[in-house]
Amino acid sequence: MKDLIKKTLLTGLGATVTTKEKIESMLHEFVEKGKISSQEAQQMAERIVEDSKREYEEAKGDVQGQFDSLLKRANVVTQQQFSELEVRVKQLEEQMERHKQEVHGSDPTSSPTG
Questions:
Q1: What distance in Å separates the CA atoms of residue 14 and residue 36, rounded to the nearest whole number?
Q2: What are the residues whose beta carbons fall under 8 Å from the beta carbon of 103, sequence distance 6 or more?
Q3: How far is it, in rounded angstroms, from Cα 73 to Cα 86?
Q4: pLDDT class for 114, splitting at 50, 70, 90?
Q5: What stretch of H or E contains 73?
Q6: Comparing C-alpha atoms, which of 47, 53, 55 is closest to residue 24?
Q7: pLDDT band of 16, cuts 50, 70, 90
Q8: Are 56 and 16 in contact (CB under 8 A)?
Q9: Hey, is 114 helix, strand or coil?
Q10: pLDDT band at 24 (very low <50, low <70, confident <90, very high)
């Protein structure tokens, strides 16, 4: 699932690069035709790039939030949650072993029935 999201984001980034090239080409044409100055074209390009970066980061955050929400609703355990549970299980096993030794003495061969 994460790979799908990465591919989607990378596709979007590729589209952004392509769009940037098209925008630069279009602005260059406007400069050649005298519709805008070279300085205006550069300012526009910079503004468009900054806006695109901001929108990309916002979209990336939105996708991550939706992905996290989806995982939560699907009751999928994260790696961190799994690791935390492993630690808890190990602690409980150690507690049980200590309790078992206290109840039955230190002889591991003694049976629980006495």
A1: 28
A2: 112
A3: 22
A4: very low
A5: helix 38-73
A6: 47
A7: low
A8: yes
A9: coil
A10: confident
Q: What whole-number distance in Å separates Cα of residue 7 and Cα of residue 10?
A: 5
Q: What is the dihedral of CA 80, 86, 87, 88, to 10 degrees?
A: 110
Structure tokens at 14: 């590729």
By the 8 A CB rule, do 73 and 66 touch? no
Q: Give the 3-state secondary structure of residue 1.
A: coil
3-state helix, strand and coil shares in percent for the chain, rounded to the nearest 5: 80, 0, 20
Per-residue tokens: 95:
């507690």
Tokens for 13?
């980034």
Burial (CB < 10 A; 0-12, 13-18, 19+), residue 9, is middle
